[in-house]
Amino acid sequence: MNGEANVDEQDLAIVAEQLGRVPRGMRAIAARCPSGHPSVVQTNPRLEDGTPFPTLYYLTCPRLTGQVSRLESEGVMREMQDRLAEDEELAAAYLRAHESYLAERDAIESLGTKVTAGGMPDRVKCLHVHVGHALAVGPGVNPFGDEALGLLADVWPSGDCAART
Ligand SMILES: [Zn+2]
Hints:
The protein is mostly helical. The protein is built from six helices and three strands, in the order αβββααααα. The chain is globular, with a radius of gyration of 15 Å. Zinc ion binds at residues 33, 37, 39, 61, 63-64, 161.
């Protein structure tokens, strides 16, 4: 399996600069910032050496990643986690997000596990995972990814991340 088959050299170089290292197992650019650089990459379920890598979508834009980290530090995940226990509709949507994520990953290669990422389907453990998922698949799939992007609407994508291309 050649994980870099769908990624051109220029994007690879930009992602390497964004991450500060050569990206591993990159499969495709899943989303871009308005300025054009990659914001989310899709990663192979297994890295080149066979190591399972269950996180299918990985946020790469440094500006967006920093903004999501800020939300995390403000306690947004804890509040989301609390609502999961009280809101059946939200919990059902989150379960569907998990199932969708797993189905997409299994369609590439099954890891023989139902573990996805970010705490799905019953915990909220990494907002970067949810934002990456939401940007990759569009609104209406990952409720917490959508919410987080809504919370960032004042700073992203209106913010200037072109400086980091
Ligand atoms: Zn960006």
